[in-house]
Design brief:
Elements (H helix, E strand, L loop, with lengths): L9 H14 L10 E5 L5 H11 L6 E4 L14 H11 L7 E4 L5 H14 L6 E5 L5 H11 L4 E5 L5 H8 L2 H21 L9 H12 L10
Parallel strand pairs: 1-2, 1-4, 2-3, 4-5
Helix pairs in contact: 1-7, 1-8, 2-3, 4-5
Length: 222
Amino acid sequence: MTDRATRLTDAQRADALTIWHYHQLGHPLRHCDIAIGLGSHDLGVPAYTAKLWHEGWFPRMLFTGAVNPIRADQFPRGEAVHFQEHAISLGVPERVILVEPHATNTGQNITFARQLLQEHGVSVRSVMLVAMPYMQRRAYATCRKLWPEVDIICASQPLAFADYVTEIGDERMVTDMLVGDLQRIIVYPGHGYAAPQEVPDDAHAAYQRLVHAGFTTRLLTP
């Protein structure tokens, strides 16, 4: 963990944990027509999607995501392409994977994935969104708004906050991302980007304290 990551106080870490739990929906796994792995900086998404495919939870998967300009060095050929390759390396046949390489945000992930499925004649009534642990609720809210007719569940690697921080290697960066996603959950419904989600008082108070403490690198600018 970097020096920057050690700057959280115990109180700040407790606030981050409150928001971490809020972001996760706790949906029980059930069989779906397809899994959509959302692009991210985290190879845990294709790894967990591959694991769930091997367990038989869905017959096909789709990875969506373009090159992230902030982390272009990490997945230089685009998140979806690298995710597909990682899933194949874990034993998933290429024939069951669709790749959508153009989306640059979560709304486009859903919209472009839906269009690609239609182009391939894939009929979908239920979708499993596989995302980073802290992104479950925002992914669900986005899909609920943009694709309301499908049955949606969310899944992510079953990691505790401390384990995810260890995997990423920077506690402060993870906390910034938790705060940024919660801001989007609050403001996006007003822009028509996502379905409204209730934010409990404890999560909202934790968010305000962390913003005041300077965890703002992932916040939207006015």
